[in-house]
Design a protein that fits this description.
alpha+beta; 4 domains; 17 helices; 10 strands; 48% helix; elongated
Amino acid sequence: MTKLSSHLEENITYAKELFPIPKSFDIITRELYLGETKGYWIGINGMCRTDVLQQIFSDLQNPLYMLDHTVEEIQRYMNTRLGYAQTSLTDNWEDITRNVLSGPSVLFIDGFDRAILLDVRTYPTRGIEEPDTEQVTSGARDGFVETMLFNANLIRRRIRAPRLTFEILSVGSVSKTDVALAYIDGLADENLLNLLRDRLKQLQVTSLTLGTKSLEELLVPKKWFHPLPSFHMTQRPDTACSYLTEGHIAVIVDNSPAVMLIPCSIFYFTQSSEDYYKSPTVGTYFRAVRFLCIPVNLLLMPVFLLITVYYPQLSDKLGLLSTQSPPGPTIIFYVIAVELLLDLFKYSTSLNSGRFSGSLAIVGGLIIGDIAVDLHWASVEILFYAAITLLTSMSLASIDFADGLRIFRMFLVITTAIGGIWGFVIGLALVFLSTITTPTFGQQSYFWPLIPFHWNALKTLLFRYPAFKAQPSKVWRHGKQE
């Protein structure tokens, strides 16, 4: 750890070796005279509040502040002359480098081997608005943004517990990305918290390029046959706060609007904030509908393919096709083509402006669907069943979970097309095996509270209980059975 020198010129020389001064236009410096004592200031242009700095510089160079003409003791000088609240002293260059590149600025004073850190940072940010992927018809309209401090404020505003803790760490040898562990001290599992803290400190990575997503893949490496997510992500502060009060840990990554919640269970992906902004009866009904959407989304197209191709008599009896059944290979082609077509619509509309995506989806679906039927690339019945599958996918609260189910569904379609009933059974068994072996952080069960069984917690996930009956203190305790 490199220490500062008590000679200002040596510190300036080292700073110019450390930072690209004056090559980089956004690194700004200022030579100051604090009475007869020289000073040198370094900051990042655009990340420091200019109005606050101007007031600080004006005060420091005010003759009334320098009756003794020289700075005799830096600690006393900072306490008596700097009226700004967020100041601290440091004596090493590693601390200075991390702070300056994060937003705070540094003031060197000649004759002292310590420098003053001025936290006058400000970040460009977008408005705190409701996330598009987690909208509700009523309730709070704010959402997490890319600035960590703002996200911490949104949580602190809702949970005013003195034990609420935001522990900050740095990840990435190049990016030095700030990662905060948010938890309520005394409620969170200490073993899980220590494991997460140690894992973050030991990560050998240059940068978190994709923010929370990169951190997710680093914390829990997965095989290609595990498409389901291992972490529950949310962009809603009210959702994150509800999990914090249940003893979970929230991981906040700077420059990312999504907060990672630990530990994770498959049941969390079926939860929606909308359930809690409705009455208990209505919330329970829509939660049951959402649970029903999972098997429909996964099995509707493979079962349809199995019956129409390999059991045409049963298909005619059930009336799955309104016209004469086409040959088996034709139906297989229809199903795969429609699956890919609907995925194309889903992703193309999500990447376009909201002003056009709705119209494009409706017009494109009508035109292309009608032409596909006329060209014998699809049938009306298959389009209908595929549309139901798409609706069930869109009803799921987690996009990552819905995409994982989509991979499983395509796998089942392929195995069913190849092997018939045995292909369907083997494919379904492999899907189940992949699901139960999905890795989670801390080796927590992916099916908790079903495995291991914890009825008090499970029933609050299956049913929407009134608030006075579903308080975390009555149901959850450190994520374990009471």
